[in-house]
User: Fold Peptide chain release factor 3 from Hoeflea marina.
Amino acid sequence: MSETIAEAVARRRTFAIISHPDAGKTTLTEKLLLFGGAIQLAGVVKAKKDKIQTRSDWMKIERERGISVVTSVMTFEYNDRVFNLLDTPGHEDFADDTYRTLTAVDAAVMVIDAAKGIEPRTLKLFEVCRLRDIPIITFVNKMDREARNPFEILDEVEQKLALDTAPMTWPIGQGKSFCGTYHLAENAVRGSDTETKTTKVNGPESDLAAGRLPENERATFIEECGLAVEACKPFDRTAFLEGHLTPVYFGSALRNFGVRDLINALGSLAPQPRAQVADIRTVEATDEKMTAFVFKIQANMDPNHRDRIAFVRVCSGKLERGMKARLARTGKPMGLSAPQFFFASQRQLADTAYAGDVVGIPNHGTLRIGDTLTEGEQLVFQGVPNFAPEILRRVKLEDAMKAKKLKEALQQMAEEGVVQLFSPEDGSPAIVGVVGALQLDVLKERLSGEYTLPVSFDLARFSVCRWISADDNAELERFISTHRGDIARDLDGDPVFLAADGFSLNYEASRWKQIKMVAIKEYQ
Ligand code: GDP
Assistant:
């Protein structure tokens, strides 16, 4: 019997992992896939760093630098749940990519290094999640090493993130003695992730819990478990879903502890695909008609095919292979003849996808970041953000004859979200903007590799850029004509004001009070 849309939606969990570099995101991803049954052997994800070519190792630059530049999706099925794990770039120069990916998830796992606690990037990513009320499950990793006391870690999460914590498990031992997790509410023990089921016990003092520890650590463990139950907040589902409370799990991704607890938590606690806000209405995940939006474009996933894949998050209905969709930006129909699913080590044609699923749609430049696809309804999803670039450069071409080719290439890169492209009103050469310097390296690499366009970058006389608008259109026109040399248009033709520095930006903003200058533009 085929499942209903509501049943399919109820089984889905779409999430990302947020963490500071080195906290263990890659290792955890690998183990989630391993214990989730998606891969036979650990090492597929990890291989990236060892410079072995893997499917997710799409770009040369990524291999060279050993960092994950691209965002990918990994799907696995475990205990009748379908998990879509959206990977995010680890390097902060690709932060805009990460933020866009977070618009496509319903929950996040926050990985914390047990010795280091909350680190700067964790904090920043957490703030993005909070803006979007994304519920967070915390995984305290590296308990097999010298770690802080669990209460201290919980306290730090509460203080630094202003987020209530509810410990769900407690580590049995720490560092060398770490040997499993104790489920506080269930009074159950899991020795390691090789055990698929937990074992019920009478309490923390049992042989399977405290009994596993060296004698001198037993009393502390029993006492801490008692205190965790009495003094910490119990798990509250509403508070969790509203983003006010995080359930906390302890473990070691490397040594296979706590990963199964985490998968089960995602399955039982994390929400099913949420409703999405569009311009004319809120779209429920269980609505009959298919809707989806593009949050990521990836070119050259397979160097042999020079393809361009748009990653869409399905928001409602059923996306079926062969269906015709309507692209909201142009109003044109688009056949979805070869949508793809991504598993850890392979792609597969997708016959049917439901809300929460992420599907890759091969195309030749038809789709852009932020695009909405529907079954005909004129509806546009809100909220895939565009961040004002912090670095602005003019692209200098070695061969001036290739200016037209460069223009086309830059346009394509901008549509993929690699860079932002601004065309000055005064007709001077285009300016590219990026959030982090590594994006410029990617641009340079791709221009030379894919388009045989060797380029260098010149400093622009601008360093700040803001999208401008006004309630009174005449006032906007007046501002634009007074500042013609400092105005450019983005890919959508929206005007931006370019300023030499923050000082001159503030100066103009104070003189032109009716002009709104914003650093984040939501697509469309
Ligand atoms: P990422 O930068 O967040 O993706 O972190 P990685 O997964 O690459 O891990 C960074 C380092 O920490 C690697 O050397 C891992 O082997 C190590 N690591 C990850 N998880 C654990 C763990 O649970 N225990 C220990 N001892 N080391 C770990």
